[in-house]
Amino acid sequence: MIPNHSPWIAQLNRTRPVVPITKDTSADVVIVGGGIAGVTTAYFILRDRDKKVVMLEADKIAHGATGHNAGQITSYFERPLSEIVAKFGFEMALEGQRLVESAWILLDQIVAEAKLQTSLYRFAGYAGLSSFKQVTKHLKDNRLRVDYGLIPESFVVADHWNRREDIPKEFGDLYTVAPQKDILELLETNNQDYIAALSTQKGCMNSALFSEELIGYLVATHKERFSFYEGSPVKTVRLKSDTATLDVLAHKVEAKRVILCTKGFENFSIINEAGSDIDTKFHHLVAGRIGYMSGHLEPLKNPPVAISYFPRTDQKNNDPTGESYYYLTRRPQEHEGMGSCNLVCTGGPDKVLPNGAEYSRKELCSENIRIEINEFLEDNYCKYPKEEPESPFCWHGPMGYTPNGIRRIGPEPCNPVLMYNLGCNGVGILPSVYGGKRVSQHINDEKLEQSIFDPQDQRCEV
Ligand SMILES: Cc1cc2nc3c(=O)[nH]c(=O)nc-3n(C[C@H](O)[C@H](O)[C@H](O)COP(=O)(O)OP(=O)(O)OC[C@H]3O[C@@H](n4cnc5c(N)ncnc54)[C@H](O)[C@@H]3O)c2cc1C
C-alpha cells in the first residue's frame, strides 16, 4: 500500500504555519473553503467590490480536490450536452457551455493581473473514440455547439471504419476522414480499436500552486480587506434574513453573505432562522466519489498534451454507457530535482463514497488501482516506456457530483444570505473560476440571466 502522494502538493514547498482563527470577527463576506473555488471567488470579490472578506479553511489552502486532481484545464461537462439541452433547453444549456469556456480568459486575466508564476500550458487536447455510440454522441454535441455559434471540436473519423456509412447525414459537415494511422498518431496509441478522434483546446496547471500563489497575492494586495484562517473548520452556519453567524473553533464570525466553496464534503449544519430548512436537502445535494490517479516520469522528449481514451465498452469495465474513460496529461515535471523529465498523470478509476461516509485524505492508494492504470497505459499509450518507469506519485481526491452533474453557483433560494460555488465534479477547474466571477456579480447585484448553474428552488419544498 502506498501513501496518498500528489505531485501538486509536493510542489507547494509550503513554509507558512497553519494559523487558525483566534478571535471573534466580522466581514461583509465569509468564504468557507480554500480550494481553487474559494480562492478565485475571493479574488473577484476583492478585485471588483469594496468588501471585507474572510476565508475559513478547515485544513490547508488547496489541499482538497484542488491539490489532488489531474490538473487538466478543460471545459466539457461530464454529461452529454444533448442531455443538458433536454433538461434546460437549447439556449440555456449552450450558454452554460459558453460561460464555462469564458473562464479561459478569466484564468489568463488572473495570471496577468496577479503576475503569477505558476506554469500554465495550453495545447490541442485529443479524445479517442472506439464505438459508433461514442462517435454519434460526440457528433450530436458538436452539432449543438455549431448551431449555437461555439467553436466546433475538430473531428476525424477513420476512412476504413466499417460503420462510417452509418453516421447520420445531418452530421456530414462536422467531421473529416483520414487514415486510421493518422488518428492513432494523434492519440499516441497503437491500439487499433480507436476509429475516431476529436480535438479541442486544453491546458494544464498545478491548481494547488496557482491557488497558493493567488492567496499570497490577495493578502499582499488587500491587507486591510482580506484575511484567511487555516485549520478552522466551520461547524454551524446560522442564517437570519440579512446576516449570518458562523461557529468556527471557539469563535463566531458575523457576515452579510456566506459563500460555500466547500465542494460538498462539509461537516457542518445550516440553521435557517429566516425561512425553510436548508440543511437536510443541502446535505443530499452532492454525492461523493473518490478519483484515483497515478503519475509516472518520462524523458523530457514530448510536448505537453492531454488525451482522453474511451475504450471499447465491451472491453472496459463492462460499462454499458460507453462513458467511462481514462485521461492522461503530460507536462514537464517541475518538482525540485526532477526538472529534466515529463510527468504523465493518468486517471480514470473512481469509487462511490457511500452516503454519509467521510472521505479521508490519509487513506492509502490501492495497489490494484495502480495496476489497472499501468495495464491501461501499456495497452493504449504508445509512449509508455517499455521498462516500467519510475512512478513516484499515486494519489486520490474527492469529487462531488450534484444530481444534474452541474456546478451550483449563486444564492440559495431559501435565503440568499447563503451562496454557493460548489458541487465540483471530475472537471472543476474552469467551472470554479467562472463560479468565482459569477458569485462576485451576484454580490454586486448585477442582473444576470437565468442559468444552468442557478441553485434550484426544490430545497424550499418540504
Ligand atoms: C482525482 C481527481 C482528478 C481531477 N481532475 C481534474 C481535471 O483534470 N480537471 C479539472 O478541471 N478538474 C479536475 N478535478 C476536479 C477539480 O479538482 C475540482 O473541481 C476543483 O479542484 C474544485 O475545487 P473546490 O475549491 O471546489 O474544492 P476543494 O479544492 O476540494 O476545496 C474545498 C475546500 O473546502 C474545505 N472545507 C470543507 N468543509 C469545510 C468546513 N466545514 N469549514 C472550512 N472549510 C471546509 C476543504 O477543506 C477544502 O479545502 C479532479 C478531481 C479529482 C479528485
TrEMBL record:
Transmembrane annotation, as ranges: none
Matches recorded under InterPro entries: FAD-dep_OxRdtase, FAD/NAD-bd_sf
Domain FAD dependent oxidoreductase, chain residue ranges per copy: 28-440
Coiled coil: none
Gene Ontology cellular-component annotations: cytoplasm
Protein name per UniProt: FAD dependent oxidoreductase domain-containing protein
Organism: Candidatus Vogelbacteria bacterium CG10_big_fil_rev_8_21_14_0_10_51_16
